[in-house]
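pinning this so it doesn't scroll away 📌
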Amino acid sequence: MQAFYDFVRSIERHPRFSSQVAAYQYVSPKEAQYASIPLDERVKKVLTNRGITQFWTHQKEGIESLRQGKNVVIMTPTSSGKTLIYNIPVMETVLEDSQAKALYVFPLKGLEQDQVKELNGLFTDLGLQPSPNKGERNPLQAAEVYDGDVSPYRRRKIRQRFPRVVFTNPDMIHLALNSFHDKWKEFFSHLKYVVVDEIHSYHGIFGSNAAHIFRRLRRICRFYGSDPQFIACSATIANPKELAQNLTGLTFKEILESGAPQGGKHFCFINPQYRSPYTQATWLFVECLKAGFKTILFTKARKITELIYTWTTERAGEYAEKISPYRAGFLPQERREIEKKLFQDQLMGVVSTSALELGVDIGGLDACILVGYPGSVASTWQRSGRVGRRGKDSLVFMVAIRDALDQYYMRHPQSFFGESHEAVVVDPQNKKILKRHLPCAASEIYLREKDSVYDVSALKPHLQELVEEGKLNQGRKGDIWFSRRRRPQREVSIRGIGETFSILLEEGEKIGEVDHSRVYMEAFPGAVYLHRGKQYQVRELDIDKRKAVCREVDVNYYTQVLSRKQTAVLSRDKRKRTGKFEVNWGRLRMTHQVVGFDKRRLWDGRRLSRHRLEMPENVFDTEGLWMVIDPTVQRALEFQGFDLGGSLHAVEHASIKCIPLYAVCERNDIGGLSHPFYPPIQKAAVFIYDGYEGGIAFTWRAFQVLREWIESTVQIIKECPCQEGCPSCVQDPQCGSANEPLDKEGALFLLEESLKM
């Protein structure tokens, strides 16, 4: 579309941006690849009436694989018709079997609204809607949502007369379906399909918990005589098949080649190194609106969302009434209303957090502005996939912030457009998570020697520990285990690990939870805690009662924790050599202690004040890797005048920043520690570890791609134009030592030595 190209050229020539356009890439449109699919005549007629008369090659491959009884994972772009791949087999099955059921699972509540509406329309046209009871208001439909936004009355009606398809999320499966499976007996006994959408979002702790939720679901299905097929859908990642198999414990056929047409995308990377990225993005947003482009702007924080929305309304003139913010803190009805207005073209623009990244059909948008790299290539394509959804060209701006990954892609845009190296990592074998789900499984259906899903013989050491801890009872013959508690599921947070602490207002109202492993770092006295776009200051942390008490505030700063760390090597399980360096991977015991915090200005990170604290130690066992520095390299480093401690510290920070290039994760998922002299090995070392009890395999992924990971770290440091280190290379805004000391050039020397053969 010429208008987009002309707009980009005008941005490149504009004095405000002329030196900031880091890259422009036009992703060419792609023609459709069609294939014929034999269909039930009733299904064919319904689809034809909706204008669906042709199918793409990946749809044919997926549908035929499902008809053959295979589990299928589909990784194709946004708007490539993945939904039809599972809706068609579901429709065919319920036409043949009036009792057949399907379960559609989305990672977050609210994402299923469009799909349930679409599927009910198809069921209506097929004549498959249930007859309402006489005088019944708002009768149940063939497909129903069962999540936290549904009233208890409606949920009870659903359980009394099950629909053909239930839309839900992992939290509800964990707490409401699995744990009360006797109330779902009819549904589970006839369950034919389980659809798991957006599987790329199942990473880290959440994904590792979800892996057990799906295994427990499979146990229940087998108990009631069913064995449903699983259908998984993913954005672009390096390991869709491996992820689907790790999540479910089943084998999958993967479908990777899309036959869907795609409109062209004009990608423009903007690097406002000497201007605020937020004001630059606001200016771009207003200009897109003035150009007549229906635009979505994504931010990385709720506070930034509200700020840019406010700035835009002040500058947008006549368009001020045609834009809206959108974030997770809004009530469900507020979110649905904004989505409806976008779809019906009553709004020209929206400023959103990641809440609009997944699943919601908001109609045809023209332009997307990303304020900050979203953290993964998959999320970037998901967000840019919100625009050009009707096969037309679209425009995408990525405005970089001062972050290592943002700057990496500004300097290496070809890496973004190339093959994805990001693997989504989950670890079903994490001991802490496993031991929390085994009592849940045993409370649902007794664990036996020959369990239908779990390898009980391999789990016996864990089962024995749970018996000794009073969480399981063992049968007299020793071949059966059952839970000591009736509903252990209530104590398991699937988006955290370990015991949870409640975040309470002074009046007693609960506004959130934080995991035990994070509570000292995020809810210490004086901490600013963010929840639903609001700031709360922690007034008291009560360890015994597992609660943090806070009050709402409106401040211009965030808090950065200061901490001390210690590590002990429990086992060395793997070892590699790279250059003169030895790199090990194994089990570590970490000791953290919060000793204070800084108040830093919200927009530029400038330190305003420092405060001392004395918090209890937090000790946990995890997985990690450690680089051992050869003494000859250390002597060469010091001979050249580099600071050893600062060099190691900078290596620690920069290498952690690069792990998300290879494993989808959050910054807080990984920790680090450097030692100029580590007594047990009598040498200098840098430790990188998973930030959760038991480990989640992030560092294992880094160990697997060791050389590529180090090469990327070298690039980030070498290409950053700063002199002494900055947030784009070796500084870490969350550093427990306040980024002291750091030696950027020394870090570069060490890493380059590690690459010499």
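📌 and the second one:
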Amino acid sequence: MRNLFQLITAIVVAVLLTNPVNAASIINGEYANFAPGPDDDVKVICDVDDDYDRFTDYANGYSLLVPHGLTVDASLSPVITVLSNDTLRMEIFYDNFAGTAKTSAEYMSYSNNFINNTRDHTLLSEETYQQDELAIHLLHWTRRKLVHVPNDKNYYTSIEIAPNANEVYTVVIKSTQPIENAAEIAASFTLTERRGIPHFNRPTGQGHTPFNAETRAFYDKFFSAASPLRWGIFEPAAPQTFEKLDIIEQQLNYTFPVLLRYQSFDERLPILALNAAYERGRTVELTLQTTYNFTDNSGAIYDILSGKYDDYFNIYAEQLKAFNHPILFRLNNEMNGDWCWYSAHYYSKDAELYKTMWRYIRTVFDNHGVDNVIWVWNPHDMSFPNFKWNHYLMYYPGDEYVDVIGLTGYNTGNYFSGEKWREFDGIYPQVYRDYDQHFAKPFMITEFGSNSVGGNKTAWLNRMFDQIGQFNKIKIAIWWNGIDYDTNGQPGRIYILDETEETTAAFRQGLTSFSRQ
């Protein structure tokens, strides 16, 4: 069968070469004119008429009509295939939930919960119907135009096509104009026999941020290829006060050079905290989460891109420039988790808006000459929901906008329903290998910890310290020294490192192998 497929695809490619105006092939993410092998990722787009082309994705097993003249981007084929022009963008995803508790029906329901936010989304129409053996869900909606989104495509259609209870194809169409041909596109959808394997083909690069001299020196010291692993900590009171942190550091005989500090829209740049850290020789990993505490933030990204926070970010940038010392700036971390208001779960399943928000804020900083910020991009190690439109790569703003890749994975223990004890080597080897194939940038563990509920925390720490040094691209690891409580105020995730004499001793011993400078 593979030989037959090779013969067929070779014939297809030969036809394409003799009639390039009417058809094109994309092999392993690139427009190509060679015969593919049996494992290659082959996609073909052919003219049908003045209005439509037929796009066939052999690796993902489908074919459908698409508007004529779109350019194909298959660089993230295992996650998404994009067809686009200046006024329209089609995103195509394939999810398979075999072996999981999820179903295609649950996917369709949960993926579209954003439509319940009627302040920001206007439902135009919705229907569910059967098309031969396929279950079809068709959703049309729109939202306001966003001034900071170039050529904003604010009309949406989502076509979800389920061949069975485990599989679902999603076609998200975004346009500058109302979309009127979605039903016709859905009717054209057919399954094809899968051939080949989806391939990633995203170029990786370092990018370039013009740091000032002090920030460049910090970056070279902490993030060069030869830099050793160093440690940081989140201690809730620091750096506003060092009272508790001083005690911890004395117990550990270790001075943490990096301190994690959070902020939301409830405050401006925490300049007093930054100064307090600098006076003690520490650098802050400043985590800005574009939310307000204790309120509904479901429209915050739309508001940012509508210009509501222009003054906030301009003042913020001016204050950063005035501070002028190195800052690790982590913007809207764990964006692939639905517990974050800035997840695409709340924004039309449209992770492009997250990337546009990031680039907009970066541009504001650049316009103010901010050259003391090291940009840290940081997904969670597991996506919630674990759907392709919420894959962590969907949120990456581009190599030129990011300086350091952040890793976050916790051993949450088993206090809360659905959570389980995870060893360090059950979290970080996999995420490290995965990120390493996509990013040519230094890594840091921006926050992590182990619960004491569900296993032996001291043993976990000992194994973690034995294993973490093997990941040579990880240059900083920050322990999250806090507690997550349940709704009754009871401790559910106890991450504090000095919880017992044994855990303190394990941390103290583990740190002896790592640099204090």
